Automatic annotation (TrEMBL):
It comes from Nannochloropsis gaditana. This is Short-chain dehydrogenase reductase family protein. Keywords: NADP, Oxidoreductase, Signal. Residues 1-17 form the signal peptide. The lineage of its organism: Eukaryota, Sar, Stramenopiles, Ochrophyta, Eustigmatophyceae. Belongs to the short-chain dehydrogenases/reductases (SDR) family.
């Protein structure tokens, strides 16, 4: 019982007075870290829109959260981040939601993701498009789906002067772990269009063969995942810069401007965790504390930064 009591003591002063319709969207909320984040946000007072591609599983998890925290604390919306049509349908559904100010949530947690452990085996599957196709699929889910959701939400957030977006990233996406040429070029990227063009080039390079000097894209067994998270970090920085530029022209928004942050939750004991790291990994409930901390602590967690264990870390 100590953990819930401690959580209440830490968070109650921050959420006292919250209304049920301060809304948070969590992608991939039906299991693992996404489910733990959804449950914790509902506990501290948010109305959580839990999304998943599996409707039956998502609705079951929503029912669990409602039993614990109340009927008005959670609802389900279908979202398959691998499908652009599903993303568009989800955004359109939000815009029609009369209880959501400006058709956007107060909080967006881009949690849904994929890690391909054996890229060669995945590339050998018929219809995969080879290694380039595998890389593009990973980028689409881990990077470009979050970007699409951010671009859909940010205009409304900026207009109404609220918002926090948390992108669940990974330490594997730190520039220090990437091929030196890739890290240098990522530092120089100045627009999302340039970022997309660069990620397409990297995918093509995987198809063509070994990198210069025999180096790999990243020193892990899942370089596509590593690079996709590095690009997500870069998108976080670029979109926060766009918000800052917009806000600098509008004094009304400045006091409550949207924040976009990337969070490395550390090794979390979920289906995506490497089996060698699972023994020492955090539970989803433990990792969710840092994600919700980022949402609630705007003075300590600044937009455009990459955090682990509540400290800013290098990109």
């Amino acid at each position: 019982m100590a953990f819930p009591v401690l959580l209440f003591v830490l968070l109650f002063p921050l959420v006292h007075g919250f209304t049920p319709r301060i809304t948070a969207v969590v992608t991939g909320g039906n299991r693992g870290l996404g489910l733990a984040i959804s449950d914790l946000l509902a506990e501290v007072g948010y109305h959580v829109i839990l999304t998943a591609r599996n409707a039956e599983e998502g609705q079951a998890r929503v029912a669990d959260i409602q039993r614990r925290h109340g009927q008005n604390r959670c609802e389900f919306m279908a979202l398959d981040v691998s499908e652009p049509k599903s993303i568009k349908a989800f955004v359109d559904q939000m815009k029609r939601n009369e209880e959501m100010r400006g058709g956007v949530p107060h909080v967006l947690i881009n949690n849904a993701g994929i890690c391909v452990r054996d890229e060669d085996a995945a590339a050998a599957v018929e219809g995969s498009g080879g290694r380039e196709g595998v890389y593009r699929s990973v980028f689409d889910i881990n990077t470009w789906a979050p970007v699409a959701l951010m671009e859909a939400c940010l205009p409304g957030m900026c207009k109404h002067g609220f918002g926090c977006i948390v992108n669940i990233s990974s330490g594997d996406g730190e520039l220090a772990y990437l091929h030196s040429e890739v890290a240098k070029r990522l530092k120089r990227v100045r627009s999302l269009a340039e970022l997309k063009q660069f990620s397409d080039w990297v995918a093509q390079m995987q198809q063509e063969g070994p990198w210069p000097r025999g180096e790999g894209l990243a020193p892990v067994s899942w370089p596509a995942y590593s690079f996709s998270k590095a690009v997500l970090n870069a998108a976080t920085r670029l979109l926060q810069s766009r918000v800052d530029a917009l806000v600098s022209k509008d004094m009304k928004v400045r006091a409550h401007q949207p924040r976009i942050v990337a969070i490395c939750p550390g090794d979390v004991n979920t289906a995506m965790c490497d089996e060698h790291a699972a023994h020492d990994a955090l539970s989803p409930e433990q990792a969710a504390l840092d994600v919700v901390w980022a949402v609630l602590h705007s003075k300590e967690c600044h937009g455009g930064y990459f955090y682990r264990a509540r400290r800013a870390i290098p990109w």
